[in-house]
Specification:
With about 130 residues, this protein is mainly α. It has one domain. It is about 80% helix and about 0% strand. The two termini are about 20 Å apart. The model has no long low-confidence stretch (mean pLDDT about 95).
Length: about 130
Amino acid sequence: MSHSKIIKFIYIILGSLWVYQGIFPKLIFTSPDEIAIWQWVGLSEYHAKLAGQTGGVIEIIFGLFLIFYPLKILHYLNILGLLFLLVLMSLVMPDTLIRAFNPVVMNVAMISLSCIALMLYHAKQNNYSE
């Protein structure tokens, strides 16, 4: 399988995960954890829910960019964003890091996919320059 096909597959998977995360735990079924995070920064319950939903819309847009406008820089943004969110969760809700379904597993997996895509980009560039 060519590097281009693998990279395209990674974009589709990452984009789909971001869209899912934006739709279900943020817009359709607003997660109590999401509200708690925003309340931790000082927002009222109403504004925390609104901020969570806004975050969901941003996640959906980011996911759609990954799918339909696959740019290399999106992988760097993905890595930085997921690292930030992981640090935030460890500060605000450290108990989530040891739950059965926790942000460590999802974030590390998504970061790894971006790292693989970047390695493939690099390998592809090296093959063209030889």
